[in-house]
């Protein structure tokens, strides 16, 4: 029986993780949940269903305390960090955005293993996270779970290249992106995700963030991390070894598999997701990314090569411009353009390496300020 803490339990990854746990009550026990204040009714339902002893929310906890009198309730901006530090076998961090960095560090400092679905923890504070060692971080993103599994086939020193796959989003075959609407960008052809991640997939910013994440997770230089378009989203990523062999991890586009693997590693959960039907004819396509239409990936590589503060700038600026796009204040094509201009504007004064959480906060605040100013000027 594994004790599990879930941060961001009311989001897509959090709810699917609880479905996996519900289907395997003999394997997992939920000892802590946290979520934002936007869906407290669902959080209350989750606590009752899984008889969770400790719950946290970043907002007002009055409703939780009234509905859950026998439960320990933690509230306020540090709630997720406190929940992350509970004694557990694994902490699933499914928080969206760079606010997930603090809870990741809190979980690691408490000695917990982290099933990491919050890629921003590594993008914004990769050096800080990896200082705790790679052996206590199990990736949840489908691409990084695939790399993690494929790398079990060989030694780290024998890896020639990591290849992440990208669905290509809704605009893979669309030449003119100048008139893209919010609804267009939210219509992902393969995955059902939250709005921010879906927009990131449409711009391929998500793939840039994942390249940064892979660099930290596996200690592989950016020059050896590639990305290709694979619209079927069946092969989730591949590892090429020095002998010319390529090991791929393939499964239907279903997040329950990576979630279950991260929660149970090194064991596997039987029936976590449907398997592929090998008796059915199917074709898998792979093609290079058009970096002229989707410049986010090349920009992410440049930021990664410049150092940790620039990946934090990239991510924080993206959060600002995606919010602006979702609120229809800027066109789709302004998203990556504004990120690039923000990076350029902060290029001379940003430190190469971030020393602590305060450094991360400071450089992110600078990036958000500059991105906001650029949007105002535009």
What does this structure look like?
43% of the residues lie in helices and 16% in strands. It has 378 residues and is of the alpha/beta class. Among the domains are: 2-139, NAD(P)-binding Rossmann-like Domain (Rossmann fold, 3-Layer(aba) Sandwich), CATH 3.40.50.720; 307-378, Orthogonal Bundle (Rna Polymerase Sigma Factor, Chain: A), CATH 1.10.1740.10. The strands form two sheets. It has a seven-stranded parallel β-sheet, with helices on both faces. It has a five-stranded mixed β-sheet with strand order 11-10-8-9-12, with helices on one face. Helix 5 links the parallel strand 5 (90-93) and strand 6 (113-116).
Structural class estimated from helices and strands: alpha/beta
CATH superfamily of the domain at 2-139: NAD(P)-binding Rossmann-like Domain
Question: What is the helix fraction of residues, given as a range?
Answer: 40-55%
Assembly form of the protein: single chain
Our measurement of the CA-to-CA distance between the termini, rounded to an integer number of angstroms, reads 55 Å
Number of strands: 12
CATH architecture classification name of the domain at 2-139: 3-Layer(aba) Sandwich
> What is Rg?
20 Å
Shape verdict: globular
Largest sheet: 7 strands, parallel
Count of helical stretches:
15
Q: Uncertain segments of ≥5 residues (pLDDT<50)?
A: none
